[in-house]
């Protein structure tokens, strides 16, 4: 007699499409094989997918769910640095909506039991008609994975085993009325629990929408600040070019005026000489006129030749300088290549070897939390850690530095009439994107005075 398999709790993984809906389902052992590199998924190449880990009971009802992101490379292999403890998160998750088997344990971006994994999770949509939890519930009910189901249908009672109660017991007794009252109280309590679960579900949805709005607002604010900085830099560059061109035009006008004055003085001098010689006879004046014209032409020719020689010398110097710049550029490129080769043969190979061994580079920055730095971002992080952390918080580097100073010492930064700092302790703003200079770092008195000055 063969042993019949009894249904048990099952772990499964569901993949969501970009525009909603579930596109693939697999059991958790298959997902572990995917992470170990045994198989690839070319259909998901070079994409970031929204994935859900679910715990299913023998009656095909969901008991826990974890919503997380998973990146795939150009070959369809999952990110090797992915290390989210799904089972641990599902065990420590908070209460979520009731999907048929009581409130589920739900771990998502707005309800994460481990803070440094929050950035790798996402919030399910709870909008009517696009509810991701309903999609999961329906997908599990369809049982596309072929799970063993517990038969919970009640067995029929044979007619001969039915017994008729005596007529004096047809009406409810005192104990029956008490049982009815207890049942009514139990139903009322269940109704209250369902109402509380519905309220909590709506609060979770509101928190998710608020966080999405804050992230979008921070992104738009950062984009506007970057665009403003670019436009200001462009304006400063154009202004500088205009001033240089005006200075060059002024110098050229001064040179032309000096040359015109010199020629005019020479012409006046020669004309005066001609006038003085006209008294000595026309022949002598003709000789002097020819001499004057010859000398004038010689001076003009000499000036033209001198300017041409200066231009030729400048052209030769310019060509030589361009040649030197080209040689220096080639030498700089060669040195840069040698530096990159040396850097790749030393620290880069060590970092890549550590990444292949499963080492994850995690740093902590206030406001951004624990950041997992991919191997390709190590150089950018070393160049400017503050800028890297500010980008993760969707704020500029300057705002992040100002917020960090406020976060480390939350006191009023306004100046008193004596020139000293107010330094009254104030409430700390924990999120960089919510920090506003002149408002978040001032006490109520200076914050109100700054608003009055602004209104006035």
UniProtKB/TrEMBL annotation:
Residues 253-280, 318-345 form a coiled coil. Keywords: Coiled coil. The keyword Coiled coil applies. This is Chromosome partitioning protein ParA. It comes from Pseudomonas benzenivorans.
């Amino acid at each position: 007699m063969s042993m019949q398999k009894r249904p048990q709790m099952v772990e499964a993984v569901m993949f969501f499409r970009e525009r909603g809906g579930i596109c693939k389902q697999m059991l958790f052992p298959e997902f572990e094989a995917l992470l170990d590199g045994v198989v690839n998924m070319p259909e998901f190449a070079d994409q970031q997918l929204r994935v859900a880990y679910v715990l299913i009971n023998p009656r095909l009802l969901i008991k826990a769910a974890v919503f997380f992101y998973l990146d795939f490379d150009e070959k369809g292999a999952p990110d090797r640095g992915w290390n989210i403890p799904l089972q641990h998160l599902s065990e420590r998750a908070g209460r979520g909506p009731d999907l048929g088997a009581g409130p589920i344990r739900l771990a998502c971006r707005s309800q994460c039991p481990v803070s440094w994994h929050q950035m790798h999770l996402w919030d399910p949509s709870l909008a009517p008609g696009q509810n991701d939890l309903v999609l999961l519930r329906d997908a599990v009910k369809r049982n596309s994975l072929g799970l063993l189901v517990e038969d919970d249908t009640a067995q029929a009672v044979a007619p001969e085993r039915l017994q008729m109660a005596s007529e004096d017991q047809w009406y409810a007794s005192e104990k029956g009325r008490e049982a009815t009252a207890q049942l009514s109280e139990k139903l009322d309590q269940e109704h209250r629990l369902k109402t509380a679960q519905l309220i909590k579900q709506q609060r979770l949805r509101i928190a998710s929408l608020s966080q999405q709005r804050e992230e979008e607002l921070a992104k738009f604010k950062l984009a506007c600040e970057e665009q403003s900085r670019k436009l200001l830099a462009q304006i400063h560059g154009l202004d500088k070019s205009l001033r240089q061109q005006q200075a060059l035009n002024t110098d050229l006008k001064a040179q032309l005026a000096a040359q015109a004055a010199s020629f005019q003085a020479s012409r006046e001098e020669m004309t005066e000489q001609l006038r003085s010689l006209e008294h000595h006879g026309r022949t002598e004046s003709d000789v002097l006129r020819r001499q004057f014209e010859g000398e004038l032409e010689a001076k003009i020719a000499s000036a033209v030749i001198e300017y041409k020689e200066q231009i030729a010398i400048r052209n030769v110097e310019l060509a030589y300088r361009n040649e030197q710049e080209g040689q220096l550029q080639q030498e700089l490129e060669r040195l840069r290549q040698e530096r990159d080769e040396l850097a790749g043969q030393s620290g880069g190979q060590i970092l890549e070897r550590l990444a292949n061994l499963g080492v994850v580079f995690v740093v902590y920055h206030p406001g951004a939390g624990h950041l997992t730095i991919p191997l390709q971002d190590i150089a950018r992080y070393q160049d400017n850690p503050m800028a890297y952390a500010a980008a993760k918080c969707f704020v500029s580097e300057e705002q992040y530095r100002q917020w960090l100073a406020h976060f480390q010492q939350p006191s009023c930064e306004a100046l008193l009439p004596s020139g000293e700092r107010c330094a009254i302790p104030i409430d700390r703003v924990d999120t960089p994107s919510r920090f506003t200079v002149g408002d978040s770092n001032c006490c109520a008195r200076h914050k109100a005075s700054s608003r009055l000055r602004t209104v006035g």
